[in-house]
């Protein structure tokens, strides 16, 4: 009964999405206030029904109702409660419902936080979001009903994929989806602006915080996903350039470009057609990622069970949503010329330069991801494009981005003088290169990769502090702390996020340069030296969990006779699927992780123990945390609220005129 | 595993305490039998095997290298790689051996040939294209700005009239709605 | 509408074309680079007479099929009746390459097993399976460690190679042969090769 209620709620949500998509847009076109006023209640009602449907599905999982197909294939009565709840999105249908729910949540957020938008503009934004929602709910109802019954019901479920039974997987998908889907708001703002032809600074100002928040979610989602891969896959890799990872990374790159482009459009009125194109692209690429994961056109570790009928449906959805948007763009964008003029040496130029570079990087990653498909479709053979290609392409293209990233904030808008800035930053540049070369030799890894990485990181860190010092000097009078407090949150956000990039690069570079690993055969009581540590194997005991059988090793980690940690890696076999899993154990430190995973038991009775020494790997995620915090600060700047209020009447007037 | 590791550390502390109280502690392993043996006799060779294995795709897996996968075929191929490197073959020989049997598909780094021209040249072409477009736009903007700065009002009016006759001019001045911050 | 603003739409439509086409493709099926190349030489013990060895030179002058199978392979059981039926029609000799009979079976821990023990086990398992399901093969050979399989670029069992009179591989079928595959692809190719020589 409850699954049927959920299904019915989904049908009602579909009807409301239809209303939300059509009525406000027609109302806006006819300037009919009462039709426009339908937008908010329709969106909010839709949200309630989707949440209700989602709750019903979760209920089927929690109560182990295996007459629901989805629960039968993705849950088990012995699965821990937490993973019963998260199991809802560990599959194609459930994750689509999560997708739709987060779209609906974003829409409701727009109705709540953007009350100051002109009515007609708001109606169009909500209408566009309604169309996207309509497509996704239809997709579920037609090809991927999460509430399908299994008659007769299964006596027991097949359990959630053990890889997904992990704390990281509890938060990774919701964060990632909030990020993907969050770009729909900037997208809807862009489409609404294209519909009205209204592309002023206010439009950019309204779009900025939404884009930044979506970017924050996406950054956090990707970071958590990579952290999960790091400890869950058992050998310490953290990024694989898998098509599905790329599918999330490409929108991230474009979203990053969009955030910066919006800044220029807001401040200077420039790059308007480019900004609109980025806003459309960021969301379109999120949709494309959804297609890639669910259609089976590309082989990936993470792909959902696929089905060509579903692929065809999403492709049709892509054609409608993206095709119509780009057509609208082609029609309206030519009018978007002009904007403030600026000189060759200006903050505008560096931002535009980085925008172009980020777009080139995104296009290159997309090219590499889809190239095997292109060749196969043209019958030119099958190839694989993997990490060696992406690294070869990514590093040279991102290097100028990082260099320019720190130049920009030192330059004035509109026009600046090259000589002065070069003189100011030359010492930092020289010190950075020297640091890079010096560190590379000091750690005994004098490769180009290490030198470049450390130089770039040093550049970011040094210039960050130089920028902070300059900013403090600009404000005269008062104590340092009072001068610090006058700096707006948005500036701190920018500073912190850029600083985070430097931290991130340190982590990536050093872990790649000086990590080491050793596989040992260990018997109880044996020990070995590894990377300056002594590792002692104290034996293996059975340690069964609720839905798995496990062997748990106890390993003492010490250094110079001083105990540091006791690590307990496990080897599990999840009973329902009979799937073996390696649960690594980590001693996490600021400057290094020691990572231990338990391999097989050999016929002679000893165990294979795999040890990894991962210097500075935490800095990768620390860098991401800085970026996320930076994004949050930037989005929280008081300016947006103040300006939104101030511009509201003007906006309404402009529209009425 | 951050959560778990905190947990592990707490357990570690109590174990350490019991070890100390029980008179245990870290043994000084003079006894050779107490020293664990590495799985591989030759770590340098193994490092090369793994380096190469990371560049080779496991054909039966979804999308994993033969270094990451424990599928039987991946294990067999890893053994092949090890055997051949041990026999003194070069890395290129090993790659060629596998490509002869499984095709370019096994290589994660696609070879440079006519069919991959666009793949390898694409990013560079995009970069050149992007940079060219950027340079073109910036020069045009700069020219406009310079011209505006140099002309007197009267000249500007005349130029505007001339240009208006020839082609529509992109409005360069910011529109009224834009802030002049 | 200026042309340059249509570029994104154009690129997108090209992409959609490829994606639509991609839906009909199988990304898991990897074509063999060995097509039209001489079949790799090998010499392996025969399943029926393990003391005797078989090499592909013995098949020179004939068009024949090399079918890779194992008793643990589920899909092999599915294709087996098709092969038995084909053998009954006497159109083409089929040689079986029994692939990693023991160590390929996930249920068996063959580590540390002596080669003789493994071979003996492989023979009894493989013979038992053929007795139970019918024997379509002119003969089968034992690829205990899968090395010959690697030479043939085998990555999924079953696989079937069509080899011509000169000992060149002319076609490779990956996965179980279905009656439909046989009728529409394999048999016409076999006929063509037979006529050609």
Automatic annotation (TrEMBL), chain A:
Residue ranges of every copy of the Cytochrome c assembly protein domain listed in the record: 89-295
Chief site of localization: membrane
Subcellular location(s) of the protein: Cell inner membrane
Domain Cytochrome c-type biogenesis protein CcmF C-terminal: 315-638
Keywords: Cell inner membrane, Cell membrane, Cytochrome c-type biogenesis, Membrane, Transmembrane, Transmembrane helix
Topology term for the membrane: Multi-pass membrane protein
InterPro entries in the record: CcmF_C (IPR032523), Cyt_c_assembly (IPR002541), Cyt_c_biogenesis (IPR003567), Cyt_c_biogenesis_CcmF (IPR003568)
Name used for this protein in its record: C-type cytochrome biogenesis protein CcmF
Organism, as annotated: Parazoarcus communis SWub3 = DSM 12120
UniProtKB/TrEMBL annotation, chain C:
PANTHER family: THIOL:DISULFIDE INTERCHANGE PROTEIN DSBE
UniProt-listed InterPro entries: Periplasmic_diS_OxRdtase_DsbE, Redoxin, Thioredoxin-like_sf, Thioredoxin_CS, Thioredoxin_domain, Thioredoxin_ResA/DsbE_sf
Any single GO CC term annotated in Swiss-Prot or TrEMBL for this entry: outer membrane-bounded periplasmic space
Record flagged with keyword Disulfide bond: yes
This protein's UniProt keywords: Cytochrome c-type biogenesis, Disulfide bond, Redox-active center
Record domain Thioredoxin: where: 33-195
Protein name: DsbE family thiol:disulfide interchange protein
Organism (species): Parazoarcus communis SWub3 = DSM 12120
Matching CDD domains: TlpA_like_DsbE
Gene3D superfamilies: Glutaredoxin
Pfam families, sorted: Redoxin
Gene Ontology molecular-function annotations: disulfide oxidoreductase activity
Domain of life of the organism encoding this protein: Bacteria
Transcription keyword on record: no
Family, per entry: Belongs to the thioredoxin family. DsbE subfamily.
Compartment(s): Cell envelope
Biological processes, Gene Ontology terms: cytochrome complex assembly
SUPFAM superfamilies: Thioredoxin-like
């Amino acid at each position: 009964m409850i699954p049927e209620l959920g299904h019915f709620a989904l049908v009602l949500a579909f009807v409301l999405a239809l209303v939300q998509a059509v009525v406000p847009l027609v109302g806006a076109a006819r300037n009919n206030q009462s039709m426009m006023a339908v937008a908010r209640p329709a969106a909010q009602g839709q949200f309630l029904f989707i949440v209700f449907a989602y709750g019903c599905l979760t209920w089927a999982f929690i109560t182990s109702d295996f007459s629901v197909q989805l629960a039968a294939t993705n849950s088990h009565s012995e699965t821990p409660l937490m993973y019963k709840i998260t199991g809802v999105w560990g599959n194609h249908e459930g994750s689509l419902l999560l997708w739709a729910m987060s779209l609906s949540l974003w829409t409701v957020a727009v109705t709540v936080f953007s009350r100051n938008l002109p009515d007609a503009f708001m109606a169009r934004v909500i209408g566009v979001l309604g169309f996207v929602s309509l497509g996704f709910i239809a997709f579920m109802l037609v090809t991927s009903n999460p509430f399908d019954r299994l008659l007769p019901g299964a006596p027991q479920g097949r359990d959630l994929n053990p890889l997904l039974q992990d704390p990281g997987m509890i938060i990774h998908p919701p964060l990632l989806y909030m990020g993907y889907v969050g770009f729909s708001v900037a997208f809807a703002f862009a489409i609404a602006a294209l519909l009205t032809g209204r592309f002023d600074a206010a439009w950019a100002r309204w779009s900025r915080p939404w884009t930044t928040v979506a970017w924050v979610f996406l950054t956090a989602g990707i970071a958590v996903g990579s952290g999960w891969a790091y400890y869950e896959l058992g050998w310490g890799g953290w990024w694989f350039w898998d098509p599905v990872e790329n599918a999330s990374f490409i929108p991230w790159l474009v979203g990053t470009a969009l955030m910066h482009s919006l800044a220029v459009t807001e401040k200077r009125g420039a790059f308007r057609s480019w900004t609109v194109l980025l806003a459309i692209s960021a969301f379109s690429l999120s949709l494309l990622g959804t297609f890639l994961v669910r259609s089976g056109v590309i082989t990936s570790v993470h792909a959902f069970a696929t089905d060509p009928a579903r692929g065809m449906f999403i492709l049709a959805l892509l054609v409608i949503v993206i095709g119509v948007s780009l057509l609208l763009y082609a029609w309206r964008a030519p009018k978007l010329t002009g904007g403030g003029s600026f000189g060759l040496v200006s903050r505008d130029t560096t931002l535009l330069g980085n925008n172009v570079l980020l777009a080139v990087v995104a296009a290159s990653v997309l090219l590499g991801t889809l190239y095997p498909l292109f060749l196969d479709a043209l019958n030119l053979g099958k190839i694989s494009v993997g990490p060696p290609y992406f690294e070869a392409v990514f590093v040279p293209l991102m290097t100028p981005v990082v260099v320019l990233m720190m130049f920009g904030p030192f330059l004035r808008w509109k026009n600046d003088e090259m000589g002065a800035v070069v003189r100011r930053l030359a010492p930092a540049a020289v010190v950075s290169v020297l640091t890079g070369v010096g560190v590379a030799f000091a750690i005994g890894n004098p490769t180009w990769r290490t030198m470049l990485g450390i130089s770039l990181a040093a550049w970011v860190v040094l210039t960050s502090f130089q920028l902070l010092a300059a900013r403090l000097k600009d404000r005269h009078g008062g104590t340092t702390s009072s001068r610090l407090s006058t700096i707006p949150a948005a500036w701190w956000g920018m500073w912190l996020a850029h600083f985070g990039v430097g931290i991130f690069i340190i982590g990536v570079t050093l872990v790649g340069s000086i990590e080491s690993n050793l596989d040992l055969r260990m018997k109880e009581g044996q020990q070995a030296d590894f990377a300056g540590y002594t590792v002692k194997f104290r034996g293996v005991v059975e340690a069964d969990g609720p839905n798995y059988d496990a062997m748990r090793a106890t390993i003492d980690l010490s250094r110079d006779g001083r105990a540091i940690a006791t690590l307990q890696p496990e080897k599990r076999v999840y009973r329902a699927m009979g799937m073996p899993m390696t649960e690594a154990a980590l001693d996490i430190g600021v400057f290094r992780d020691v990572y231990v995973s338990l391999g097989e038991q050999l016929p002679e009775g000893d165990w294979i123990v795999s040890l990894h020494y991962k210097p500075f790997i935490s800095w990768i995620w620390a860098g991401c945390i800085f970026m996320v915090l930076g994004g949050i600060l930037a989005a929280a700047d008081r300016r947006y609220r103040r300006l939104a209020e101030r511009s509201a009447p003007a906006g309404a007037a402009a529209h009425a005129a | 595993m951050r959560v778990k590791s905190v947990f592990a550390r707490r357990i570690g502390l109590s174990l350490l305490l019991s070890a100390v109280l029980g008179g245990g502690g870290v043994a000084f392993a003079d006894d050779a039998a107490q020293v664990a043996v590495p799985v591989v006799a030759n770590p340098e060779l193994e490092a090369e095997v793994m380096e190469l294995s990371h560049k080779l795709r496991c054909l039966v897996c979804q999308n994993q290298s033969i270094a990451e996968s424990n599928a039987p075929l991946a294990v067999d191929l890893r053994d092949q790689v090890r055997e051949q490197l041990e026999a003194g073959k070069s890395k290129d020989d090993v790659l060629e051996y596998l490509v002869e049997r499984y095709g370019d598909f096994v290589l994660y780094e696609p070879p440079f040939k006519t069919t991959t021209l666009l793949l390898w040249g694409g990013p560079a072409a995009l970069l050149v294209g992007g940079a060219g477009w950027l340079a073109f736009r910036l020069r045009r903007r700069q020219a406009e700005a310079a011209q505006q700065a140099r002309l007197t009002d009267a000249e500007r009016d005349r130029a505007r009239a001339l240009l208006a006759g020839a082609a529509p001019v992109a409005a360069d001045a910011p529109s009224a709605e834009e802030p002049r911050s | 509408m200026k042309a340059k603003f249509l570029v994104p739409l154009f690129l997108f439509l090209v992409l959609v074309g490829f994606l639509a086409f991609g839906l009909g493709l199988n990304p898991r099926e990897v074509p063999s680079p060995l097509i039209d190349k001489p079949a790799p030489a090998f010499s392996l013990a025969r399943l029926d007479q393990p003391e005797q060895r078989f090499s592909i030179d013995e098949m020179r002058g004939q068009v024949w099929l090399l079918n890779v199978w194992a008793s643990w392979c589920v899909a092999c059981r599915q294709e087996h009746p098709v092969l038995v039926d084909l053998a009954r029609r006497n159109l083409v000799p089929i040689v079986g390459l029994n692939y990693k009979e023991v160590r390929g079976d996930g249920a068996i821990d063959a580590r540390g097993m002596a080669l003789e023990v493994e071979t003996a086990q492989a023979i009894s398992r493989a013979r038992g399976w053929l007795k139970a399901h019918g024997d379509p093969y002119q003969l089968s050979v034992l690829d205990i460690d899968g090395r010959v399989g690697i030479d043939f670029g085998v990555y999924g069992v079953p696989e079937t190679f069509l080899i011509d009179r000169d000992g060149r591989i002319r076609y490779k079928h990956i996965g179980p042969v279905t009656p439909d595959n046989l009728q529409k692809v394999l048999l016409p190719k076999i006929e063509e090769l037979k006529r050609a020589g």
